[in-house]
Structure formats: structure tokens, C-alpha cells
User: What shape does this take?
Amino acid sequence: MEERVLASYYIETPYPLEQAAEVMAGEQSTGTFVSVPGETEELKERHAARVVRIEPLDETDRPSLPHALAPAGSPKYRRANVTLSFPLHNFGPSLPNLLATIAGNLYELREFSGLRLTDLELPASFAAKYPGPRFGIAGTRKLAGVYERPIIGTIVKPSIGLPLTEYRTLVRELAEAGLDFVKDDELCADPPYAPFAERVRVVMEEIERAADKTGKKMMYAFNITGDIDEMRRNHDLVAKSGGTCVMVGINNVGFAAVAHLRSYTELPIHGHRNQWGAMTRCPQLGMSFTAYQKLCRLAGVDHLHTNGLNSKFAEPNEQVARSIRDCLTPFLGGYEVMPVLSSAQWAGTAIPSYEAAQSLDVIQVAGGGILAHPGGAAAGVRSMQQGWEAAVRGQTLEQYAAIHPELRQAIETFGKKG
Amino acid sequence: MEERVLASYYIETPYPLEQAAEVMAGEQSTGTFVSVPGETEELKERHAARVVRIEPLDETDRPSLPHALAPAGSPKYRRANVTLSFPLHNFGPSLPNLLATIAGNLYELREFSGLRLTDLELPASFAAKYPGPRFGIAGTRKLAGVYERPIIGTIVKPSIGLPLTEYRTLVRELAEAGLDFVKDDELCADPPYAPFAERVRVVMEEIERAADKTGKKMMYAFNITGDIDEMRRNHDLVAKSGGTCVMVGINNVGFAAVAHLRSYTELPIHGHRNQWGAMTRCPQLGMSFTAYQKLCRLAGVDHLHTNGLNSKFAEPNEQVARSIRDCLTPFLGGYEVMPVLSSAQWAGTAIPSYEAAQSLDVIQVAGGGILAHPGGAAAGVRSMQQGWEAAVRGQTLEQYAAIHPELRQAIETFGKKG
Assistant: This one.
């Protein structure tokens, strides 16, 4: 049976929708601007992309993106959801070549004043080539030793400039405070002032020392973002040093680099999505998170950032909620990935997060919400856990805080941000 | 002396410009949403990004991007060019980590209704780590055997589905027609219907056979876009088979993958920029080509697509002209890259292209403009060369066509397209 890839788009065009959809299909398969010899009907039948669905939406007088070519007069710009189907044999199960096909030149076509990839469905051949997350939710929980509640974490702050001596003190404090998880800031990978190898040594010494005391080995996502060979060296160093997680800036390195990391990783891959805003913040361009997270899971990340509810970023809560649920929806029959909620998180974010996720399979990362808790980091951690306890029990924050002083303090300190 | 990276942005914000610029600098260096212990004044002094320039522009009543957080009332959205300066010791000379710093989370900040990276300046340490284009303009000319005029090329069309027997016939025709250069379509890398290794064998046989006759070895950019190890295997196969160029979809694989390819390449890297529209078509988001082409050259591409004048894509001619000039402007003291003009090109595009480039150091790629020439591909090639001859001599197309029948035929066939 012929395998096909389905790709869905949100488009805006001054042309009839059927015509516009055919332009997309032609550009990304057998079309040329002048008919050339060899472009036979048989070839088109076998290789052309097909328009499988057009769902008309609203219209507007004003093009969302500039430089669309419009018919004379005062055209209406029609919006629609369009789904195309591509024969897999046009490109084979290759992540980079999938992108060339389903995205590629489409964004530059002048027939469109808006074009956004909104979803994709892949045939089984992709699963045979890309094994996806090696650890996923179950594997991460096992390594972190955390079950039946979210994994609570923090980010090393300040993001930049902390000398290794202070790094050591901070990691010790966090590990002894009972934190499940710590991640490097995305700005800190292998900076000259705190070289990666030194950082790994210091951090792992403190994590192991705390584990000897507490019996719990804190998971630390070391930011190995770098060039291809650097990533491998850094991954190997983390694994050899007893670390349990590596982090990568997916868009900083690209999908091919992530898939390469997946091919040899011995540790869960914490996928950071910085630069993602450039791909998604214009509603009529780029890509939806629904499509993006599938590409990330295909490449093999075990954790994926979704933003948190009530964050300091522009993304509205409804989108964050949808992103979390996207991550928790099976893809290619599995490809478990753990959504990572971050930015301005504190104990009070647990209730809306639980409402959004309908699940405890999330990593929630708080910076100030833990480190700046007036009772110290350990109290910050407790307050975060208490927030989720309240959520699961269906209590309000205030109710639960009445008998949990760490939560009470968190409300007093961070509640205004709520 | 302390090395710093300068990054320039076009911003739109409802906040005072100074305040907005400080938010950018803080987010991408030492800032946190709640002050944390360790964030000392000394650390800030040493590691904070600095605002070095704010050039106010116009204002608008309507935010360009949704979900910006605005002060109460009816705020004005102020636009400005802003330049930030980052200490290199925050991240070191690493292309992926540079991206995390100068782009990173900026696009998601809710203080902005528009944010676009417009330019960057890098210190010498980057040149020490990333050698840049291995061949550049001079090396490409030498391999192609083309001097003192543009390199004229075509794209194998139809892009998809051509069986190898017809592939062979087409390549033979092109090589015998005296073409300088052929590139794979970006949709065709290693498809099951025409596996890469088979394609290389067939193409190189024909190129060598034609070279034996004509004395000229046509440069063919084989599309090796794929996963990291596949790219290496495919590059090695092309080099071993006597090929003289490899092509990669930069955005399909990511900058780290391109830099990795550069680390071992024996051949010029033809950089295709498909998906680029997603990063640039919204004027208030993403990245300008001026910034992008520097990143591509740092990663090491020898050729870079810029679109052509009067193309079928949305980009206006002024932007295409600027992109061509950007490529021809030295970067880090050199990093020569050859702009590639394509899409709806034909003999008549030479004159505006020469006006835009003020140089002959371009690759011009025509599909139908060569393959659909009524006199055949050889006549198509001649017509393209004649177009440039007219441009250099300062003649009009009509003048030069009066004594050049291939050009005359090209005008008659493609002239309506401009």
C-alpha cells in the first residue's frame, strides 16, 4: 500500500481556494513555472501532491503578510484550512527532506498573504527510521525517582555569570532541598567563565554527595547545545560522570543534530525550544506547536518545553494548554514526551496547570518561585508540591495553604503574580 | 581586550523604548523575573548585555503581532532600531549558542508586538573557530572553469519523479549544451524512486562523458540533505565519484549540521534556503537576510540562494537586490559566498540582475528559461549568456537580440514574463 504524508495548513489568499491549494501542491511536487519535457501525465499521477481537503473560513480586506500578488481591484483575502497529501516515495522517511517537502518554498509563494503549517500525519516508515524518545515519561520518572506527581525543578539562576564556587553552593542547596530536577539555563552551555567539563564535575560531585545523604539523585539537564562533535563529547562526559539528563536547544542546532544526538544518547534529551517564537508568533506564518512537537518527538526529545501557564511570555494560556495536551497525545503509536512548564512558575501555577494538562506527567520548572521563596529553596520545593497536592484534591490554594505554611508563604510572596 | 557581539533588532513595543531595550538585554543575559541571590552588581557589570543604540522610528495604533502586553488605555506602539552588545565570554564562539543568545527567547517576550533580528557583528574568535566557505567565489570558479561571467545553471525538472533513464538523457543534454552548473531540486535528495547512489552514478557518467567530448566538466550540486551520517556518506560518495559540488537545505538540517559538513567537506557547499520564508516574511518577526546570510557563511556555505529578480516568489525586487549585495559584502574579513539567483529566471533577467549585483560573481539558475527554450537547452544556455553580455555592454535586450537569434527566441518565448 502506498504510504502518504498528510500536511495541514492555514492559508490566506486572494485567489479562489481550489486554485491556491493546487499552487501549493504543484510547487511542492511536480510543478514548474513553464511546462518542461518529461512532465508527463503518468509522472504527475504517480508523484503529484493531492489536495485532500479545503475548509473555507472567513475573509478579510487586508492581507496579513505583505507582497502577495493579488488580482486587480479590491480582492478579498480568503482564509481556509487546507490539507495536502504527498506520496512518501517522493522523498522517503527523512526528517530533513520531509521539511523540504511540507514546508520548503511554500512560505514564499506570492499567491498567499498567509501560510502556516498546522499539523502533519506521518506513515509508519518514519517510525521505522526514527525511534523517537528513548526514555519518554516512564524512563524519565524512573531515572528521577519521581512517581504519581509532577517532576518539580528549577533553573540555575542567574542564567549567566555564576562562578563555579557559587555554582557548587547553589547545586548543593538545591539537591539537599529535595528538588527532583534542575536544568541549565538555555544561555549557559560551555561558556569560557565556567567551562562545561568543570561545570559537570562540580555539579555531579554535589549531586552525588547529596544523594549519599538523602538517597535521592537529583536529575540535572546539562545544556550540551553546541556543534555536532561537541555535543557528542559533552553527552559522553555527562553519561560517564553519572549524570542522568542532557539538554539541547532544538532550534539552535536543528532537527538533524537532535536526531543525531538521539542515535547515540544514553540519557533523556531535555528539548528546549528557544527561538520558537520566531516560527510561531505571527498567526499567519510559520508553524503551529501541534506540528512542531511532532517533529521534535520524531527527532527524539524526551522532554519538550511548552511554556507554563501565566508565564512572562506572550503566548496566551489557551495555547499553552493546547501545547501541553499535544505533548501528552500519542504520536505514531507512542513517542512519549514530557511537557516542560516554565517561566514565572510558582506554587500557585499548579492548579491551572493541572486543569490544562489533566495529567501529572509534566515537568514544572520554577526559577524565582523556588530560589526566592522566603523560607529558602527547600520550602520553595515543598510549596510547589503542595500546590499540586491542592490541585489533585480539588482544593483552592487558600484552603490548602491554611495548613501548609510553605504554600502560605509562597502565596504571600508570589501571589500577586498569580 | 574584551570581545563582544553586536546584534541589531527592529522592535515594536507599547513601552518606552529604553525600558523595552533593557528587557531584551536582561532576558538574554543576567535577568530573572524575581531577583535571586547571586545576582550581584559585580556579576551584572561583567555579564549583562548592554543597550548601545536606540533609533526611534514611527508609531502605530495597532500591534503588528498579537498578545503583546500593553499598558492600560490606548497605547502607541513605538518602533525603533535597537542594538545590543553581548560579552562573548557569556557563551563563547559557538554558532548554536550565539543563536540562543541573540535570538533565543526574545521573540516570545510579551513586551513586544514586533521583534526582528536585523544584523549582527561578530568578533574575531568566531573566525578562529569557524573557517567559513572553503571554496567561495574563486574556488567555485576554478572548479567550474568559468571566469569573467556569471555561472549559468539549471535545475533538474520536473523536480520529482524523473526515472533514471530520463535523468541520464537530460543530464547528457545539459552537459553537451555547455551548461556550467546544474543543481538538484530541493525536493529531490535520496528518494526511493531514484536512490542517491544511483543518481550520482548516472549523473557522473554523463558528466564525464560530455567532458571527454567538450573539455568542460559541468558542476553538479548533488542534494545531500539528510541526517548527519547520511550527509557524510553522500558527500563522500560524490567526492569519490568525481563530483564537484554538494547541496544542502540549510534550514532543513540546521546550522550545526551545516558547520559539521563544512568540517569535512572536500567540495563547495551549495546552500539552499528553503523554509526561509517562515523566518522572514512577517516584517515584524524573525530575521532579516542580512543577519541570516552571515550565519550561513559562518557555518560555511560557498553558495547561497537569494531568489532572483522578477521571481515567482513574494519577495520584492528591492529585497532580492539587497540580499545579493549582502552576499557580495565581505564578512569577518572575507567569507566569500556566491549568491544564487533562481526562480523564473531567463535571458531577460540578466540586465536587472547585473544592475542589482553590480558584479558578475553570481550563479544564475534557470529552469524553464533553459529547458523550455524553443531552440533546445543549448540555445537556452546561449540566450542566458547573451543576456549577460548585453548587460555588461550596456545594451538593451532588444538591441543585443537583433544579432543574437537565441536571445531573440528567448524574448519571444519568455518575454511576457518580464
